[in-house]
Amino acid sequence: MSRFLQFVVAACLAWVTAVCSGDDAPSDADAKAKPAYRTEVLRGRVVWLAEAMKRRFGVETDPDAAHASVALQTDGGQLLPIVKDFRGRGFYSDPRLREMDLELLVRRYPGAPAIQVVRVYSLHDGGKYELDYWCDVCSIPMYELKECECCQGPIRIRERLVEKRDRPEPASSKDED
After folding, report:
1. 54, 124, 145, 160: which is deepest, by most CB within 10 A?
2. How many domains does the chain have?
3. The pLDDT value given to residue 69
């Protein structure tokens, strides 16, 4: 092994050892203090929360709130606000995501009405497709419509078949109250 390679391996091992045994490692108390969540699978369409509140309940919001929050409108009509994080941001920037029947793998925290999106699946043509954005040049997935984080080039929406059903999904009933 070359001296340079030996140096790189030794440096990596030293870093891993420092990180794993350092004072910055989370303690048992820190792990217990973290709020628990449960993972759920929910189906529906993502909507602008202000528009859904006006349509369903007659609630008028300030004009600046029109596109401030999105929510999953479940097949049962429930409105669940979506946390705007690295997975939730995509629903703000790409209108196509608000026009699809979706299945979301989400985290729900006790006492919080909002859901945190973990995975996004589109439902169409009798199948379930994992959905993300893809750069054909860099071959890296992303979770919102923007320029590639690596090459700054264009990215595209990508759907990968996860499950094919013999018969198409029944049309979901959307509450338009």
Report:
1. 145
2. 1
3. 97
